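hi got a favour to ask and not much time before my train. below you get a single protein, a line of residues and a line of whole numbers that encode the local backbone shape. could you go over both lines and see whether the tokens make sense for that sequence. a few lines back from you is plenty, here it is:
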Amino acid sequence: MASDSAVDVSTEFARVPLSRERVLRAAVELADESGLDALTMRGLARQLGVEAMSLYHHVPNKEAILDGVVDVVLDEILAAVEQADGPEPEDDWLTALRVRILTARQVLLRHRWAPRVLETRTKTIPAMVRYFDGVLGILKSGGFSYDVAHHALHALGSRALGFTQELFEPDDPEATGAETAALLEEHADQFPHLLAMLSEVAHDEGDSSLGWCDDQIEFEFGLDLILDGLERRRTTG
């Protein structure tokens, strides 16, 4: 049986009037806590302590919820990059852009489900347009023509916003890693380069989508390759 204090808190929370902003922020919290699959109208109603029908005045369906949580996360990213401590693009465009991208990534790391939702949106998202306009502004201030900056946006892709689609993302990294190791050992003669690489490179176990790689290190490695390449292109014409 719930304690009196727990009941009081729940009752007080339920008394706060519903609004679209409150519903969407609760949706973000639910996805952060329980994953994207938990983000249903019924689950969101439970999170808010209300009846599911009351949500339809603010979000008509799950797609509207997904559109809304994307707006919340992107607004969070825009606020974060505005506060980020980076150099002026005219002085050091590369560091300015790197800081912007890694700041956006820090926000997405707090909302690990968000990239999956972003990849499914088909409508123009004003906050997304504002973010990429800022990326383009940094490139232009750094001395890039709009033509080369356009190519740069394509080269960066989703990495410009702080995430990438990994080549392989197992549901159970630990089990998949063990299976892969067993396969390589059993057929060592067929995979000489993979075995040589794995024997030479020791990946620390950590918070990783691949399971045996450090996502942050690999993300920054790829980002730096692209930025260094763009700098060479900028200086050589």
Summary: Residues 43 and 104 are 28 Å apart (CA to CA). The first helix runs from residue 4 to 15. The radius of gyration is 22 Å. The chain has eleven helices and no strands.
